[in-house]
Amino acid sequence: MEISIIETQDVSKQYASHLALDKVSLKMPKGKITGLLGPNGAGKTSLIRIITQITRADSGLVLFEGQPLKPKHIEGIGYLPEERGLYKKMEVGEQLLYLAQLKGLSRADAITRCKVWVDKFDIGTWWKKKVEELSKGMQQKVQFISTVIHEPTLIILDEPFTGFDPNNAKLIKDEILALKAKGASIIFSTHRMESVEEMCDYIIFINKSKKILEAELQQVKEQFRTNTYELVYNGDNLQTPQNTEIVDDRIENGSHICILKHPSPMGRNELLKQVMQHVEVVSFSEKMPAMSDIFIKLTSEN
Questions:
Q1: Which residues, including other chains, have CB under 8 Å from residue 206's CB and lie 6 or more apart?
Q2: What is the CA 188 to chain-centroid distance, rounded?
Q3: Same domain for 260 and 158?
Q4: Are 36 and 187 in contact (CB under 8 A)?
Q5: Are 154 and 277 within one domain?
């Protein structure tokens, strides 16, 4: 049986009168990018703080690679919080070396790894600058380096693209995927559903202190499929089976683009067969639900 990077068993956390987590049990697969999703105040940050041992659960068990979570596991975790925490008055180079050594690296190893990342991000000219002199995006790069420089087993990223322009967001995205390819497990918490679509393998959704969904990304999409199809065709005599709803039908570049909704997924072949008898089909594909639509549906239902 494959060991999860993180497993929680009936984890609960209470702050005064607020129940932040209510008997949450979940498994985050090793070597994958897990999207930890949910609306503001759902309990995501509380869960992350328990995993990083900033706080403790009131009850329940947390396992790290199959073992009860202990202080020794901290060196195997890299955490990029949503609220960034660099020392504004320190020079970039001094700060990176300091934070790397806090994670257990020798000074020599810290220098070597810093040089690799500084060259990779082309920020050598910032080495002697104070953090407060940098733009928000530049500070983000420094914070990202400090998160991954010790090559952690588990990387937790809370809104990692905040403050980045599209070019730098792509740079960080590529580095995250490269870290995954090297074997790192990643928890990715964000409200940017397009990033979830592009990067995540696994989805855990928390709402109102409870886990309400956990599955592979593709399984989540299939669970919320609406049997909606995009048909591109030529001709003027479109006919569809009974109970098929034509949601939209427009002409672009000389071809009709039609959105159809059929009541049953078993009827897609019947739908296509009927259509092909009357018009020339250029393409036919199912429109799977976007994660943004699934997010809205889950939060409204719960």
A1: 24, 36, 37, 38, 42, 43, 44, 47, 212
A2: 4
A3: no
A4: yes
A5: no
The model's pTM: 0.89
Burial bucket for residue 92 (CB in 10 Å: 0-12, 13-18, 19+): buried
* Residue-wise pLDDT tens digits, 72-83: 999 999 999 988
Residue 295 lies in a domain: no
| Number of domains making up the chain | 2
Expressed as residue numbers, the domain containing 237 is 227-286
Do residues 31 and 25 make contact, with C-beta atoms less than 8 angstroms apart?
no
Q: Is 274:239 a contact under the CB 8 Å cutoff?
A: yes
Q: pLDDT of 99-121, one tens digit each?
A: 999 988 999 999 999 999 999 99
